């Protein structure tokens, strides 16, 4: 039987994002402030959502930097962010 990949909504709240990444909401906010994760999108005054594909891309880019496989000058300093 083949393993299935979980399906995530394209946009999610900070609560959902924190649950999917298995980290606290405050850590998500810290990573956004450090520039590791993308800023959320304000859909209205009271509705803010994170773009899941942008979050995935940021995580993949950071993984490449840590593995020494990135040639992106923007990401070159990302490894110094804890």
Provide an overview of this structure.
It is a single chain. By secondary structure, this protein is an alpha+beta fold. Helices cover 39% and strands 10% of the residues. It has three helices and three strands. The chain has a three-stranded antiparallel sheet. A hairpin with a 5-residue loop joins strand 2 and strand 3. The termini are far apart. The mean pLDDT is 84.
Can you give keywords for this protein?
single chain; 82 residues; alpha+beta; three-stranded antiparallel beta sheet; 3 helices; 10% strand
Global morphology: globular
Report, as a whole number of angstroms, the end-to-end distance: 39 Å
Q: Roughly what fraction of the amino acids lie in strands?
A: 5-15%
Q: What composes the largest sheet?
A: 3 strands, antiparallel
**How many discrete domains?**
1
Low-confidence region ranges: none
> Strand order across the biggest sheet?
1-3-2
Rg over alpha carbons: 14 Å
N-to-C order of helices and strands: EHHEEH
What is the number of helical segments per DSSP (H or I, 4+ residues)? 3
User: What's the number of extended β-strand segments?
Assistant: 3
**Which class best fits the helix and strand makeup?**
alpha+beta
Kindly state the mean pLDDT as a whole number? 84
Helix fraction by DSSP (H/I, runs of at least 4): 25-40%
